[in-house]
Structures are given as C-alpha cells and as structure tokens.
Amino acid sequence: MIMPDLTINWKKVIDSLKKGVVVVDTGGVIQHVNPSMMDLTGYGANELIGKTCAIFECSGCEPWYGQGGFWCMLFSSGQSMKPVACKINCKSGHRLKVVKQASVLWDANSIAVAAVETFAPTPF
Predict the structure, then answer these.
(1) Where are the domains of the chain?
(2) pLDDT digits (tens, 9 = 90+) for 4-43
(3) Under a CB-based contact definition with an 8 Å cutoff, are residues 53 and 72 in contact?
(4) pLDDT mean over 50-70
(5) What number does CATH give the domain 20-110?
(6) How far out from the chain centre does Cα 95 lie?
(7) How many Cβ atoms sit within 10 Å of the Cβ of residue 32?
(8) What is the DSSP string of 52-115?
C-alpha cells in the first residue's frame, strides 16, 4: 500500500487527534490549533491564531522576554520537551491541569521552523 502524501493533509491529521494540539512558529506565534484544544480551553481558533502561546500562561514553559519580545525557550535548546504536568489558562479564567509535550520541527537544512505542542487533561 502506498502512503498518501500527508503534506497536503497535515491539518486533517492534527485535527483528528484527541489531544489538544497547537502549532507555533519560532516566535511562539500560534499558527494552528485543533478542535480538541479549542474544546479544552474554550478559545476559538480566531482568538488564538496570530497570538503567542503565552496566552496560555503554561506553568511548565520557560518563556524569555528579550529584545525581540516573547521568545520560546524550546527553540533555544532545539530539544523536544518531555511530558510535563502543568496548568494552562482557559478562556474562562480557569487553570486547567494538563500534561504537555512539545517537539521542534526542522526543515531540510536543519533549521527549526515550528513546534508542535500537545496537551492532555489530567487529574493530577
């Protein structure tokens, strides 16, 4: 069986996942959120896309506010983030307990171009 070209269907793949998914660029600006993330947080895609992931105020993140403004420490290490228990802000103001994991995406020249973050609710 030949695998279909997922480059044209990546949004469908992400949108089918049960975990909340956020795709951010190297500046931490949200480029895509899946329906599960919108269900978890109460935010609509139009409220998140174009904003930085700092909107979630994740207790497991280490943002850096330097000369260029917000910048995600995930890209400084170039390493994937192992699962970490943390809390994120929901639109309602509620702090939701989640397990977050993130992976940096690289282009063909080994330059970081984006990151994919997943969020799963947890009762911890």
Answers:
(1) 20-110
(2) 555 667 888 888 889 999 999 888 889 999 999 999 999 9
(3) yes
(4) 71
(5) 3.30.450.20
(6) 17
(7) 18
(8) BGGGG--TT--EEEETTEEEEHHHHH-PPEEEEEEEEE-TTS-EEEEEEEEEEEE-TTS-EEEE
Q: Which residues pair with 88 in a beta bridge?
A: 96
Phi–psi pair at 13, nearest 5 degrees = -65, -50
Question: Which residue's entry shows tokens 């935010």?
Answer: 43
Matching residue, tokens 């992976």: 103
CA dist., res. 10 & res. 20, Å (int): 15
Segment 39-67 mean pLDDT: 83
Kindly state the tokens that stand for 46: 């139009």
Residue 20 pairs with which residues in a beta bridge? 119
**Helix or strand run (H / E) with residue 16:** none
